[in-house]
Design goal:
Blueprint: H1 2-6, H2 21-24, H3 26-32, H4 36-44, E1 49-53, H5 62-76, E2 79-83, H6 95-102, E3 109-111, H7 117-125, E4 129-132, H8 135-143, E5 147-150, H9 156-165
Parallel strand pairs: 1-2, 1-4, 2-3, 4-5
């Protein structure tokens, strides 16, 4: 959109149709909002949690993200719930999540115990902040008004989507350069 505007073409922005996800999928989300996995997160983190999708996070980003997440979690009294969206619908736990959980004390870090897409969507919509590499998860959070921040994963899709649909004041990506 910015490119077209700079080229002199009038661009009329409109909300992304996916923003109606909570309304269109209300039945499925309602059916999964009280699942044991989400109930465990509510009981464990009564002040809320940061949902962190780690499927596409590069190894070089690990320590910087751990430091930033720890600072926010401790400052705001939030838990951190890790999951890997690339394993939705699969049985068992994603091995990539374990190292993230182990980087935190057990009263801060936890693995989301479900790979069911509706349970993950419900967990995202009940989170206080989303941080991760999945554009799908960002769109779900956007639809529910959840704060969101992408971790750069080398794909132009999230940045392109955000430049088109996000308000200019909404930060798009976690910056590796910031102190």
């Amino acid at each position: 959109a910015n490119f077209l505007e700079k080229s002199g073409l009038a661009v009329h922005r409109m909300p992304c149709a996916l923003n109606v996800l909570p309304q269109v999928c209300a039945r499925q989300l309602r059916e999964h909002r009280d699942n044991p996995s989400l109930e465990e997160m509510r009981n464990r983190f009564p002040n809320g949690w940061i949902a962190v999708e780690v499927g596409g996070v590069r190894a070089g980003q690990f320590q910087k993200l751990i430091t930033a997440l720890r600072e926010i979690a401790e400052r705001d009294g939030l838990g951190i719930v890790f999951f890997d969206a690339s394993h939705c619908g699969e049985e068992g736990h994603a091995p990539s999540v374990r190292k993230w959980v182990e980087a935190f004390p057990e009263w801060i870090g936890a693995e989301f115990a479900s790979n069911n897409i509706w349970e993950i969507a419900s967990m995202l919509l009940h989170s206080r902040l989303y941080c991760g590499t999945s554009l799908d998860c960002r769109i779900i959070c956007m639809s529910g008004g959840v704060a969101r921040l992408n971790v750069p994963a080398g794909s132009p899709s999230p940045l392109s989507y955000c430049e088109l649909w996000e308000h200019d004041d909404v930060p798009i990506e976690f910056s590796e350069e910031e102190p």
